[in-house]
Design brief:
By secondary structure, the protein is α+β, with helices and mostly antiparallel strands. It has five domains: 92 residues, GIY-YIG endonuclease; 109 residues, no CATH class; 110 residues, Nucleotidyltransferase, domain 5; 160 residues, UvrC, RNAse H endonuclease domain (Nucleotidyltransferase, domain 5, 2-Layer Sandwich), CATH 3.30.420.340; 53 residues, 5' to 3' exonuclease, C-terminal subdomain (DNA polymerase, domain 1). The longest helix has 32 residues.
């Protein structure tokens, strides 16, 4: 490949990367940079994914030479959205250990986050560790803040005297008097279970309370600390009271959400699905030892209106095979029609597993939004095409309704009957093509006849002037107005050349020619929303014209009968008093104040004689 081709390819890749960056969410998360072979070369965390990732590609970054080299190798970007910065930090740690990217050289094993361990033994010890051993012990964490964890551990040892020795305190060894109490016993830090000075039941009660503290159920502990602080203060031991106060403040700030997830959730697969009429988006999270170690989202194009259950079943099978998962539990949003053998399916409603499912769903939603935004940046007309395709499918149209015209009649008890037509092209208003119609051949309120006149005038002219026909006509009304419009189209030879429907306002029912049963479309569908928008726009446009015509009619029929009052003075009066009735009820002073003494006196005298 020549140098010019390489430059061109690099420029195309930069445009692709910038498109991805523009659609990143302003949320905390973890991002992964991939090279041209889709290999992860760098993993980072961010408070704002959009701001952090875009900083690598801005001109004034002041970045090092190594970073510049890495940025040049970036061919793709993936990311995972999480709830907090802490979650992003912990997830970054897990992913770096898993993928060991080339440019994450500063992350070493001794930087892994610690856990609190309640050892699986008689008279359990509680200590911190960076190594999780599957020996039946309980592990809580990981803790991103070592200071916070040590404060919690110190607090536990202060409140509950526990052994720290590694002796095997079996009943046999204790009764054989193999051990003697150590300095910790004499300091009051241990109650001497090694010499049978503390009962196992009493010790285990303390362990049960400690579990609650670690989980974040600290209200009782806070109460005990306050009592201890007061005792020190009463004894004038202010330094000790201050130490307890500091620990109390730290404990009150402690958040049980220092975990990515509950560490007891181990070797579990989480799946969620978000779908629309075209595609489904499935997110997969793999949980090992209470932490997210894998996250992946895929898009599945629908072919035959498959259900979410069918799509999710296929996705679960594919992703578990792809990532070689051996988990025995699936967390899903609903039960599948297919039963995976020897696997437990959980559909959580509350608790830690529900939070995991919610997190998975958010990642699927963000992925869907980003894919849509990226496609719209590459193809700005894609959104329009999708709406028109959906409408064509929902309304069973023979072609895309690129050009739509919607009609509405506006009159009050047959007074000043008018009609309006609004035109939409590519699902957007084409206001230059809007038209008003004054009803000329209909006497009194007759919506059917009025609709016939308007349709005849509109499409007879289009035929005569050889203008482009719309693909769809929408009538604001029921079956009667639709039949009137269809009759006219047949009369002028356009029946079958233009699709036509009517929308009844009360129940939002759609009527088709020669079909007595209306069509009910999903209230949230884009098709119905667009039809409603056009109907409302036609109504607004028609009412505006009606009001103007009504105002002119009032001026000509009543006010201009007054000697010396022309259209200009009549408009001033209507603007001031809003109606002819109020003008007739106004006092001489009010009228003169509005249009002058002479003209005001003329109007006042006119209405006095009329009354």
């Amino acid at each position: 490949m020549g140098s010019s081709e390489k430059v061109k390819e690099r420029q195309q890749n930069i445009r692709k990367i910038k498109t991805i960056i523009r659609t990143l969410p302003d949320k905390p998360g973890v991002y992964q940079f991939l090279d041209e072979k889709d290999k992860v070369i760098y993993i980072g965390k961010a408070k704002s994914l959009k701001k952090r990732v875009s900083s690598y590609f801005s001109k004034d970054t002041g970045q090092s030479g190594k970073t510049t080299v890495m940025v040049k190798k970036i061919a793709g970007i993936q990311h995972v959205v999480v709830d907090t910065e802490l979650d992003a930090l912990l997830l970054e740690n897990n992913l770096i250990k898993k993928y060991q990217p080339r440019y994450n050289i500063n992350l070493k094993d001794d930087k892994s986050f610690p856990w609190l361990c309640i050892k699986n033994e008689r008279f359990p010890r509680i200590f911190s560790t960076r190594h999780v051993i599957h020996d039946g012990s309980e592990y809580y964490g990981p803790y991103a803040s070592v200071k916070l964890m040590n404060t919690l551990l110190d607090l536990i040892h202060q409140l509950y005297p526990l052994r720290t020795c590694k002796f095997s305190l079996s009943e046999k060894n204790i009764r054989a008097k193999k051990f003697k109490v150590c300095l910790e016993y004499h300091l009051g830090n241990c109650k001497g279970p090694c010499e049978e000075l503390q009962a196992e039941e009493d010790y285990n009660e303390a362990i049960a309370e400690i579990r609650e503290i670690i989980k974040g159920n600290i209200s009782n502990v806070v109460s005990n600390l306050r009592k201890l602080m007061k005792q020190y203060a009463d004894l004038l031991a202010f330094e000790k009271a201050q130490v307890v106060k500091e620990k109390l403040n730290m404990l009150e700030r402690y958040q049980s959400k220092s975990l990515v997830v509950n560490p007891r959730i181990n070797n579990v697969d989480v799946f969620s699905i978000i779908s629309d009429q075209e595609s489904a988006y499935v997110n997969y999270l793999r949980i090992i030892n209470g932490a997210i170690v894998q996250a992946h989202t895929i898009e599945m194009k629908k072919k035959l209106d498959e259900t979410d259950s069918e799509l999710l079943t296929l996705a679960v099978a594919d992703l578990r095979q792809r990532f070689e998962s051996d988990s025995q539990e699936l967390i899903l949003p609903f039960n599948l029609d297919f039963k995976f053998p020897a696997i437990i399916v959980t559909i959580p409603k509350i608790g830690d597993k529900k939070q995991l499912l919610d997190l998975s769903e958010r990642n699927a939603k963000y992925y869907k939004l980003e894919k849509r935004k990226q496609m719209e940046l590459v193809d700005p007309e894609r959104h329009t095409k999708r709406i028109l395709s959906t409408m064509m499918k929902d309304l069973r149209l023979p072609e895309l309704p690129i050009h739509i015209e919607c009609f509405d009649n506006s009159n009050i008890q047959g007074d000043y009957p008018v009609a309006a037509m609004v035109c939409f092209k590519n699902a957007k208003p084409s206001k230059a093509d809007y038209r008003h119609f004054n009803i000329n051949t209909v006497a009194g309120p007759n919506d059917y006849a009025s609709m016939e006149e308007v349709i005849l005038r509109r499409y007879k002219r289009i035929v005569e002037e050889q203008q482009t026909l719309p693909q769809l006509i929408i009538i604001d009304g029921g079956k009667g107005q639709l039949s009137s419009a269809v009759g006219i189209l047949e009369k002028i030879g356009l029946r079958g050349k233009i699709s036509i429907i009517a929308i009844a306002e009360k129940l939002e029912e759609l009527y088709f020619p020669n079909d007595p049963v209306p069509l009910h479309i999903d209230k949230k569908s884009e098709t119905l929303r667009l039809i409603q928008y056009m109907r409302d726009e036609a109504h607004r446009f028609g009412i505006t014209h009606y009001r103007k015509k009504h105002e002119k009619g009032v001026i000509k029929s009543t006010l201009t009968e007054i000697d010396g009052i022309g259209e200009g003075y009549a408009k001033k009066l209507l603007y001031k008093f809003k109606s002819v009735k109020r003008i007739g009820e106004a006092s001489l002073e009010e009228l003169q104040q509005a249009i002058g003494k002479v003209k005001g006196k003329q109007v006042y005298d006119f209405f006095q004689k009329k009354n």
